[in-house]
Amino acid sequence: MDILARAYLPRIAGLALASASFLAVTAAEAKEITIWCWDPNFNVAIMKEAGARYTKKHADVTFNVVDFAKTDVEQKLQTGLASGTADALPDIVLIEDYGAQKYLQSFPGAFAPLSGTVDYSGFAPYKVEVMTLDGQVYGMPFDSGVTGLYYRKDYLEQAGFKPEDMQNLTWDRFIEIGRQVETKTGKKMMGLDPNDAGLVRIMMQSAGQWYFDKEGKTNITGNAALKAALETVGKIMQADIYKAANGWSDWVGTFTSGDVATVMAGVWITGTVKAQPDQAGKWGVAPIPTLGIEGATHASNLGGSSWYVLESSAEKAEAIDFLNEIYAKDIDFYQKILQERGAVGSLLAARGGAAYEAADPFFGGEKVWQNFSDWLAKVPSVNYGVFTNEADLAVTAQLPALTQGMPVDEALKAIESEISGQIQ
Amino acid sequence: MNTSVTRNASAVFTYGFLGLMAFLSVFPFIWMVLGATNSSIDIIKGNLLPGEALATNVGNFFTLVNVPLVFWNSAKVTILATVLTLAVSSLAGYGFEMFRSRQRERVYRVMLLTLMIPFAALMIPLFIMMGKSGLINTHLAVVLPSIGSAFVIFYFRQSTKAFPSELRDAAKVDGLKEWQIFLFIYVPVMRSTYAAAFIIVFMTAWNNYLWPLIVLQSNETKTITLVISSLASAYYPDYGVVMVGTILATLPTLAVFFFMQRQFVQGMLGSVK
Fold first, then answer.
1. pLDDT in tens, A12-35
2. Which CATH architecture has domain A21-144+303-352?
3. Quick one: average pLDDT of A205-221?
4. What is the ipTM of this complex?
5. What is the pTM of this model?
6. Which CATH number is correct for A147-300+361-423, 3.40.830.10, 3.40.50.2300, 3.40.190.10, 3.30.1490.100?
7. A68 chain-B contacts, CB cut-off 8 A
8. B137 contacts A34? CB cut-off 8 A
9. B188-214 burial, b for 16+ CB within 10 Å, e for fewer?
10. CA nearest to A271 within chain B
11. Which of A26, A241, A369, A374 could form a disulfide with A178 if both were Cys (CB 3.0 to 4.6 A apart)?
């Protein structure tokens, strides 16, 4: 035992030293941009493509795209920023739009402002609003969650509705159609997860409001859009035109299995809708219904994320130049990520490219990407604030009571008191 | 007659209950194996029959993940952590039981108190420590915090209570030094305790998630748990691939458990008879 230890100790020590010096060498190697993001088939693959394009022109800059789970990226970013250990952070990180203000406001000075470099007038205005704090814009807008109403043409036709009937809907009309679809075809109109406030968020933003006002103050009891949204969700539940889903996969299952006639979600759902080849030609896309109150539109957003450069990054200048050159200027890049990954970026000029202009046979030859691009420019800007996730939980908690006939004003009061309790 | 009816009824109840519990514990495994043979869509639909997508799923897993590297990383971290934890913590457990001093119980209690501090609270200070020592993104940073494990020390101390002090006395009379007693008498006598502790530490280290997640920063250092978590959190996770990954990640712990099952049970009952 003793002899063994004596023989191996120097070797182990040597190994440790060697690995330490190896680490030092990689750290000293300049101009490698490290990026954290979370979906190997989506933003990771897209960032690798973006990096390859940049390296082609700037051979001295290489990229290291690291993928973790989304919550893991958040946890790591939080730990890194809170501990002030700068060398533990990447150069560029992907942050979900709903959480952006939380990071910007909790860690002032941690992210590099890009206002001077990037021309933000080319992007969908609501995406830019998400990353603006005190007049400075901090991120590079990435994928959009512009919403659409995907519907099964075959089911609606059986119920006596043509694609024209699906345009310019109000929610009341949508529910009416839903009733008829169920009588004529036996199918439910939509899948709905009672523990997910996504639908409420879609409706609320379509009328230009959010849980928080432009100053970031809680906006619940006086929020006409939230009130109308909750009323509408209540009506959908009372009319029983939905198939209840338990969790995300189950919700996806409602339409992949052909059990429901419509899907309402961000444009990123397109890939999943199209994953059923046997449903080709049966789907159409229309703008989402409007709430019918003042300021209500047919455009909204669900989800989406953006890139941020860390102020502490050693490769800050290169990282900013990279984002600006690819994400703010390269129209061809946007065609490629649309074709290969189904990603709709936030750069409005991208619609001029070939992929955006192509008709999609899966949707019966409709030019769906042009439509989404139209709606993208019209999504109302709102302030997602710091506590969107907390507000979401408070809303979800009241949804069951709403279906059992609780007055909406009471629900709003309960939501407000729960939010103020949570964020104190 | 009457008694045999009651006996039969109670047997039916017992086996029914045990069968149900066994089913509940085994079902996730069955589902995992069946899931690996199905496409993601079929898994979401709830298909519980064997499918034909196994080869595709395995293929996709091996293209998406650098399997040898990831397993090497996990193995390295786990083996280092297990060997070091057993060495350090068993020594501490031995020391706590064998050496009498006035402060012993106080130190021991404070150590046990640390079991109550959730790891989330230790994470940021620990991270700063690792950052200052330049150990971020090294496997050493994953291993170091685990080797002085209060739980394993506790376990060894409890087991050491059954270690006959006569053995130690006899060894002393024969002229053995303390470290020799530990190495040549204690370790062989306590081998089933070591085996049980080995399984526990091995499993914890292999499945360890939060701390490696925080401290490991690059694709080259990631362990299997991090890779599976990242696969499963995609917007449209390919559940078939995730199932393949989970099966592969379960194999080492299963193997260790099956190989050491007998010693594990003995260790739990107490090493010294």
1. 444 444 444 444 444 445 689 999
2. 3-Layer(aba) Sandwich (3.40)
3. 92
4. 0.70
5. 0.80
6. 3.40.190.10
7. 213, 226, 229-230
8. no
9. eebebbbbbbbbbbbbbbbebeebbbb
10. B236
11. A241
